[in-house]
Design a protein that fits this description.
Structural class: alpha+beta
Number of helices: 11
Helix content: 40-55%
Radius of gyration: 19 Å
């Protein structure tokens, strides 16, 4: 069967350690060079270039040339969704393997980009806040933006979010570190972009990890009643993350 043959090809491409490392880095949503990806995967540039050529040939990534540099990124939200699912299965459903904790891992667990939307403890807290305010409804089967939610996002984004036949408007995405849902789809991507544009979040040392800025702490509290100090507090204080909108 053609579908089975394609499945084997894609699985083999993703299953290589160097290529998997490159794809994992590209899931941060940034466009990166072969040199940057080679460093992340700890292989030579020429070796990484060969891997990237195979990934691009299979339609998993695409490249753009700017000046003297060629940049690579994930081809589409569909490919990103596949990789998200593989990462979640690897982190949640397969037998755990020992791995020493590191500051980088902890930063990713707190807040990161998952392709073009927000994940980690921050992403899950945003989803909780949007549900608590009645702007979004989430279930195992999908996501729904309510009427008041559309009005909220129109104010936040500066325009009414448009639906597209090429992408799900709002969907739950299982967070591999929190094991709960954050929000993906068009709404998740627009929310992430708005947070960057407003200066609410910033990249953390060029990695997938992000930081919430002082402006973001104020903005998220005003917009969604989200207390970032509680979001990032040790486990057990998560219930205090969402505060009344009229709280001081």
């Amino acid at each position: 069967m053609v579908a089975a043959a394609n499945l084997v090809e894609v699985a083999a491409l993703v299953g290589d350690t160097a290529r998997a490392s490159a794809l994992a880095v590209l899931m941060g949503g940034q466009a990166l060079t072969a040199t940057e990806l080679a460093a992340a995967a700890r292989v030579g540039k020429s070796t990484m270039s060969e891997h990237l050529a195979r990934l691009e040939g299979a339609g998993l990534i695409r490249s753009t040339v700017q000046g003297r540099f060629k940049y690579f990124r994930i081809e589409s939200p569909r490919v990103a969704s596949m990789l998200e699912s593989i990462i979640a299965v690897a982190a949640i459903d397969t037998p755990p393997r020992y791995r020493p904790k590191s500051a980088d891992d902890e930063a990713l667990r707190m807040a990161r980009t998952c392709y073009d939307h927000l994940a980690g403890r921050l992403g899950v807290a945003l989803a909780d806040a949007l549900v608590a305010q009645g702007f979004v409804e989430l279930s195992d089967d999908g996501g729904l933006v309510t009427g008041i939610g559309i009005d909220f996002f129109a104010t936040l984004f500066g325009d009414r979010p448009a639906r597209s036949a090429k992408r799900v408007f709002c969907r739950p995405c299982l967070d591999w570190s929190e094991r709960r849902y954050h929000i993906a789809g068009t709404i998740g991507a627009r929310l992430c972009r708005a947070a960057f544009d407003k200066g609410w979040i910033a990249r953390h040392d060029g990695s997938r990890a992000i930081e919430v800025t002082p402006t973001g702490r104020r903005g998220l509290r005003t917009a969604l009643g989200l207390d970032i100090e509680s979001v990032f507090a040790p486990a057990g204080r998560a219930a205090a993350a969402i505060v009344p909108q009229n709280a001081s």
